[in-house]
Design a protein that fits this description.
With 464 residues, this protein is an alpha/beta fold. Helix content is 25%, strand content 25%. It has eleven helices and 21 strands. Strands 6-5-7-8-4-9-10-11-12 form a nine-stranded mixed beta sheet, with helices on both faces.
């Protein structure tokens, strides 16, 4: 008779090993193998009957029954790719208290109001606590069933009776399978629970949302195989002190992974931000030293973001470099270009760069705005408030072209910007945006001359 056995499973990739190894053979990470007890498989007599699905020719299949279910929350629809696909398994991760449960309760209420039956399973709260949150959010709860259960077998049995169209599991780290000799949240519990939910979702046609905790590095807690099992992986982003939250999709089998949803946390829950560019620039003051505006693309949507920088003579032997919301290595590179090509003595300066609003700037199009903000703070001269800066900076100080320039400039014009500094090689003569003057510049040195208020093009003292 088979007995339970101990194996070592990598917490990063899910690789199994019969003995402990310092380095995982699968992902080459160090010290990620954890000892796990795997229960013995069921014998033939106790094994449940399994129906094998016959193979079907692709041309004979009908996809009409996979119509997406559109939600009343348009920002969430954007991240999902247009709505919820029936039979899909979706994972939402984020830091504690960022709003995962609040958002999914709002999603569940939206589906219930449209006539779908929803089951909300919570392993962390009892129904009375969820009811209190629902009252605060103004949710009546008709068509929304609550379960406070952690035994996955009991959960699946109840789901088979109710036959819902949407299920929310909050969270995957709290549910467990009794036949596995491991505590809830263990590697094999998380993996097997996700597999059971995936199999149930595909066979029943119901959609399933599961929430997951994140590690201190910001990754989904548990084995990386969890992200491979699900159809959609979304992350909640945002500072805990900020009212704004961003939902970003990093995996989507049914849509683009470039879209982002923007919400504002209020007393009535997460509220969609209809005009995010205006929100990000709402507290910007004119002629502020160390501030510049750029346009970044989050999926198909352009967003205007203010970049701030502060330079100050260091009080230590080694000057500090701090980047909040921007890539740290690109900040170091831009500071080096300004020091070498523009003769700015930044080697004795602490440099702090910040992207306002809690958004993270990952694309190189923000390079020029970062350079303008640093130069403005270093020379104590404000950037022209009606100017927007776009462009990637090369190591020689040249400006390189960026994609979708016309779309970015249209958004800038809509918000009242009248001047745009863009790379000279961007084919600007074919772009005509009403109300905005497009100035093509070849180098970051030329761009800084034009951007700093009160500095004429022919002067050189700004760099000396």
């Amino acid at each position: 008779m088979d007995k339970s056995r101990n194996v070592y499973i990598c917490s990063n990739c899910g690789h199994e090993s019969l003995k402990w190894l310092g380095r995982c053979p699968g992902c080459q990470e160090w010290n990620t193998l954890e000892e796990t007890t795997i229960a013995a498989p069921l014998g033939r007599k106790n094994a449940p009957a399994r129906v094998i699905s016959p193979a079907a020719e692709l041309s004979s299949l009908n996809a009409s029954n996979t119509t997406r279910r559109s939600l009343s929350i348009s920002e969430f629809n954007r991240v999902l790719g247009g709505g919820i696909v029936p039979g899909s398994l979706m994972l939402l991760g984020g830091e504690p208290g960022i709003g995962k449960s609040t958002l999914l309760l709002q999603v569940a209420a939206s589906v219930a109001q449209s006539g779908g039956k929803v089951v909300y399973v919570s392993g962390e709260e009892n129904p009375a606590q969820i009811k209190m949150r629902a009252q605060r959010l103004g949710i009546s709860g008709e068509g929304l069933f609550l379960m406070a259960e952690t035994d996955l077998n009991a959960i699946l049995a109840q789901l088979s009776v109710l036959c819902p169209s949407l299920v929310v599991i909050d969270s995957i780290q709290t549910v467990f399978l009794p036949e596995l000799e491991a505590a809830p949240g263990a590697i094999n519990q998380v993996r097997e629970s996700a597999l059971r939910l995936m199999q149930w979702a595909k066979s029943s046609g119901a959609s399933v949302f599961i929430t997951a905790h994140v590690t201190k590095e910001g990754n989904i807690a548990g084995p990386r195989i969890l992200e491979h099992i699900v159809d959609v992986v979304m992350y909640f982003e945002g500072e805990s002190q900020s009212a704004y939250r961003l939902i970003r999709s990093v995996k989507n089998r049914f849509g683009s992974t470039n879209e982002v949803g923007i919400f504002e946390m209020k007393s009535e829950g997460l509220v969609e931000v209809a005009n995010p560019s205006q929100i990000f620039l709402s507290n910007r003051q004119a002629n502020t030293v160390g501030s510049a505006v750029t346009a970044v693309l989050e999926g198909s949507r352009p967003l205007l973001v203010e970049v701030q920088a502060l330079t100050n003579t260091t009080s230590f032997g080694q000057p500090r470099r701090t980047a909040n919301g921007v890539d740290f290595n690109r900040t170091i590179m831009i500071a080096a270009v300004l020091s070498k090509r523009l003769s700015m003595r930044l080697g004795t300066q602490d440099i702090i760069v910040n992207a306002t609003g809690g958004i993270r700037l990952d694309e190189p199009a923000a390079d020029l705005a970062i350079a303008l903000a640093i130069a403005s703070s270093y020379r104590d001269i404000g950037v022209c408030p009606e100017t927007i800066a776009l462009g990637e900076i090369g190591l020689s100080g040249e400006l390189r072209t960026i994609p979708h320039l016309e779309r970015r400039l249209s958004e800038a014009s809509r918000l009242g910007f009248t001047r745009a500094l863009v790379p000279a090689g961007a084919n600007c003569q074919n772009i005509n945006i009403n109300g905005i003057q497009i100035i093509a510049v070849s180098t970051v040195k030329e761009a800084i001359k034009l951007a700093l208020t009160g500095v004429k093009t022919e002067t050189e003292d700004v760099f000396e």
